[in-house]
Amino acid sequence: PPVLTVRNLVAQYSSRYGTISAVKDVSFQIGRGETLGLVGESGCGKSTLSKTIVSLNRAVAGQVILDGTDIAPLTGRALRPHRANVQMVFQDPYASLNPRLRIGDALDEVLVVQNVRDRNERQRRVAAILDAVGLPATVARRYPHEFSGGQRQRIGIARALILRPKLLICDEPVSALDVSVRAQILNLFVDLKHEFGLSYLFISHDLSVINYIADRVMVMQKGEVVETLPRDDLFTNA
Ligand code: ADP
Ligand code: ADP
């Protein structure tokens, strides 16, 4: 079975000026071990779709079936165990890292929130995930501002992966990085995919990045999926 099945998903924003549908009736699947690229003009709904899948936004309608469970209607306690299964990596991990928390404590906190009670187990998992993303153990004692963009993104990836998700949603994860660092982080995503059996929904406006990382490519326009094509057709069909 697919790792993710999204069916007829609708997401909206409401304000006193009215309601806009940022995601309109979107359906797709991601297979195990698959990387689905997501492209489309700014404002077409890519981020809203991602946040709705990870339940940072509530779906107005539709299903988000993760590993057999529709998590779209779940909240709070009922959602928590499933939330671990899908995590996000953002463009700028610094924005979501607490500047006053040492990296080790920030990673520890993620496990505490997920009810991993055994302190030794948490320490072991923090050390293991830092190693997996190519950071030395000493990083745990340092603060976010002490790191370069590429290292921060490694920390962002560690934080997403420490809960052992099956699916990672990456929203422009290399767009803010220098070209040489970008290649290193892309290679890290590929390595981690094989090491942990991950699947990705990978958003990038850079088609060379999509061409490198994605197996299939989904194109959004004005809140809808208008096309899904194999990676090899990315440049031939344009
Ligand atoms: P993308 O990620 O493809 O750039 P978004 O999902 O950010 O697109 O935005 C989709 C639409 O939803 C746009 O019209 C955008 O202006 C609107 N939108 C995004 N976030 C909000 C928000 N917090 N409040 C109101 N409208 C929003
Ligand atoms: P808080 O620390 O108060 O939960 P955050 O803004 O850090 O506030 O997180 C808000 C929500 O976003 C939480 O439900 C959290 O689990 C989720 N979240 C934070 N970071 C990630 C991530 N890397 N991937 C997926 N979800 C995340």
From TrEMBL:
Chief localisation class: membrane
Transmembrane regions: none
Family under the similarity heading: Belongs to the ABC transporter superfamily.
Protein name, entry field: ABC transporter ATP-binding protein
Residue ranges constituting the ABC transporter domain according to the UniProt record: 4-238
Any single Gene Ontology cellular-component annotation: plasma membrane
Organism: Pseudoduganella lutea
UniProt GO BP: peptide transport; transmembrane transport
MF annotations from Gene Ontology: ATP binding; ATP hydrolysis activity
Alphabetic keyword roster: ATP-binding, Cell membrane, Membrane, Nucleotide-binding, Transport
Subcellular location: Cell inner membrane
